[in-house]
Amino acid sequence: MKHMEEMISAYIDDELTDAERRLVETHINKCKECKKLVEDLSMMKNQVFTTYQSIEIPDNMEQYFLSSIEQKTQRGKNKIPWPIVIGSVILIILAVLCLSPLATFGVGLISLLFTIMMRLLQVASTFMAVVPSLFIGVIGFAVLLLLISVLSLRRLFLTKAIE
Ligand SMILES: [Zn+2]
């Protein structure tokens, strides 16, 4: 037969057979020491359970981990930090445009475009953290918008130069 302390521990964990269970129950009705042990152990178990339950695990935890792993894998594949690259390209283009003598009248437009670009980059970085494929779409859109702006700026400059 198992030692009574061992039996009580198993009793608390609900790991006893019906016969063993009855044996423990009969014993703790007669032995104050063991009754106290049962009470202490079950209180401890309850506390652990309550503590465990009080730790909130978000429902989308698994998804969050999966997406962050995916993100890291993707980052590992292409080590170029795209928001920085595209941001630099935009800055260089804007700097060249601003420095050209024809640019003065276009400054307002350029600063507006710059703001839009920065906002797009901000959104893009946020999306990158959530959905990598969406991020690629946003970058594609930003590049398209950039091309359109550069083309329309050129047209504007050329028109003004002719006048
Ligand atoms: Zn006892």
Short structural description:
The chain has 163 residues and is mainly alpha-helical.
Describe this structure in words.
- The chain has 163 residues and is an all-alpha fold.
- The chain folds into two domains: 4-54, no CATH class; 61-162, no CATH class.
- The protein is built from seven helices and no strands.
- Helix 1 packs parallel to helix 3, helix 5 (82-99) runs antiparallel to helix 6 (107-130) and helix 5 runs parallel beside helix 7.
- The mean pLDDT is 78.
- It binds zinc ion (ZN).
- Zinc ion binds at residues 4, 27, 31, 33-34.
Instruction: Catalogue the unreliable spans.
Output: none
Which shape, going by the Cα principal axes?
Answer: rod-shaped
The proportion of residues forming helix, as a percent range, comes to over 70%
Helix-strand sequence? HHHHHHH
SSE-based structural type: mainly alpha
Mean of pLDDT? 78
* Number of extended strands: 0
In terms of DSSP E residues, the strand content is under 5%
| Number of structural domains | 2
Number of helices: 7
Which ligands, by name, code or SMILES, are bound?
zinc ion
Distance between the termini: 107 Å
Major sheet characteristics = none
User: Roughly how many Å is the radius of gyration?
Assistant: 34 Å
Domain Putative zinc-finger: 5-34
Pfam family, one: zf-HC2
Protein name: Anti-sigma-W factor RsiW
InterPro entries: Anti_sigma_zinc_sf, Znf_put
